[in-house]
């Protein structure tokens, strides 16, 4: 069961990722965007990011030869190893998203990398890294 009642945002980074095929820019944040300390803002952002998770379906990152070759898996793993490195690796994730987004129908938008603590998954309390993109209309 997913349970986010006690979940906290420890760090949040925001980048603007355009569509490379349309020559839209990638604008990486120059520094960590936020460490959320205001409780009302914490609740609003947590709700914004997590309210969409209703089912317990889990998806895993994949690579056809070796998971260690999956770039996203590596960047997120480094964030788990050292949460203070979130900004450095979120920039790498934004660049990776930008380089992979070459279809003209993909819209640019804000890309969020969020480090959550105290998520409950299957009765276990875990930390989580969320990758979210909101598209510009």
From TrEMBL:
This protein's GO CC annotations: nucleoid
InterPro entries per the UniProt record, alphabetical: Nucleoid_associated_NdpA
Organism: human gut metagenome
The protein's name in its UniProt record: Uncharacterized protein
Lineage summary: unclassified sequences, metagenomes, organismal metagenomes
